[in-house]
Amino acid sequence: MKASKYTEVQKAFILRQGEEDTPVADIFRKAGISQATYFSWKKRYGGLLPDEMCCLKALEDENSRLKKIVADLTLDREMLRDVIRRNL
Known about the structure:
Elements: H1 8-19, H2 24-31, H3 35-45, H4 50-87
């Protein structure tokens, strides 16, 4: 996945403008983002502070790493079960 050119602080600032009375179309134009990007950020980060956004990203990264580990261990377990079945 491509890294974002916007920091968490910039994302929070853009989203905060949307919470105020600033027209959403003006936010897109000034920030140079698409409407889809804005609404995906709003869905993912809505109401979070920049510090919380960093923590969320770190937790999501750790969660994906742990899911890969579980998948590898599950595969290893299944392979060992197959070996045991063949030996019996």
